[in-house]
Amino acid sequence: MSARSALPVIAVAAVSALLAGCTSTKSSGSGGGDISLVNSGKLTTCTHLPYPPFQSKQGKKIVGFDVDMVDLVASALDVKQEIVDTPFEGIQSGEDLNTNQCDVAAAGMTITDVREKNLDFSAPYFEATQALLTTKGKPYKTLAGLKGKKLAVQQGTTGESYAQKHAKGVKLVQFEDLALLLTAVKTGQTDAGINDNGVLYDYVKDNADTTVTAEFDTGEQYGIAVRTGNDALRKKIDAVLKDARADGSYDRIYKKWFGTAPKTDAR
Ligand code: GLN
After folding, report:
1. Ligand 1 pocket, residue 154 CB under 6 Å
2. Percent of the chain beyond pLDDT 70?
3. pLDDT the model gives residue 19
4. Rounded distance from Cα 22 to ligand 1 centre (Å)
5. Which pLDDT does position 65 carry in this prediction?
6. Distance between CA 163 and CA 174 in Å, rounded?
7. Which of 252, 230, 249, 258 is CA-nearest to residue 105?
């Protein structure tokens, strides 16, 4: 077969693989409708590990605030959640969703205008802001104070773009995940690190030699993402989040992971 005549065959095969990859589940309750899932009988979630307390491994299990949130959605759909660990770049660019790797992405991911072009977000479910991590005894409390120093950033994140815009004259050192960034700061490989306040406060609890010295008031909100146009699933997620706030499960899960009740404006 010539390369030219093979093309339509490949195209047809790709389309039918795509169709075969989607199965439908009937959902009951508010905001339902026919929701198609990439793997039958499961709600497949893309995330990027580790990002505690939102998602991280405890033994063999993946646990966290986001995991519990998506479990509520799975149970409303009468299926189990299955979590796929994949680089954040493919999550935030919409690529994983658009190639049917997963039904939802839940990765402590901030709702941004750029991302909204490539995927659709649920209603916000968590508030965050960028923050600065350093080791105790270091003087860094501002980005200006880090001039000529090394600042750890996590690839593809809002923290990285904030630093690119605001950390003038600071050497940005890019890390692929949160764990590598935290270790770089702790071991002095970089002078400080920027990331979301929730994960940094969680880290300093167990790492007394490190400290959070600033918050930058970026006013971020996390959303659960679905592929563009998957309104049935997005509406279902919104309905589940609304119910969770009304029936106390949101507060219970928040307390489980953060130790306190949420401020009313933080949810
Ligand atoms: N909230 C940040 C963002 O959306 C970081 C998310 C993450 O690293 N998982 O870019």
Report:
1. yes
2. 86
3. 44
4. 28
5. 98
6. 11
7. 230
Strand 56-58 with 61-63, pairing: antiparallel
Domains present along the chain, CATH in parentheses: 12-125+223-266 (3.40.190.10), 128-220 (3.40.190.10)
**Lookup: tokens for 64:** 């966290």
Instruction: Please report, to the nearest 10 degrees, the dihedral formed by the alpha carbons of residues 235, 238, 242, 243 taken in order.
Output: 60
Q: Please identify, by atom number, the ligand 1 atom nearest to the C-alpha of residue 161.
A: 10
User: Residues 126-180: pLDDT tens digits?
Assistant: 999 999 999 999 999 999 999 999 999 999 999 999 999 999 999 999 999 999 9
| Residue 263: predicted pLDDT | 80
Amino acid identity at 53:
P
pLDDT digits (tens, 9 = 90+) for 192-218: 999 999 999 999 999 999 999 999 999
With a 6 A CB cut-off, is 126 part of the ligand 1 pocket?
no
Phi, psi of 122 (to 5 degrees): -70, 180
Can you tell me the distance from the alpha carbon of 110 to that of 224, in angstroms, rounded to the nearest whole number? 9
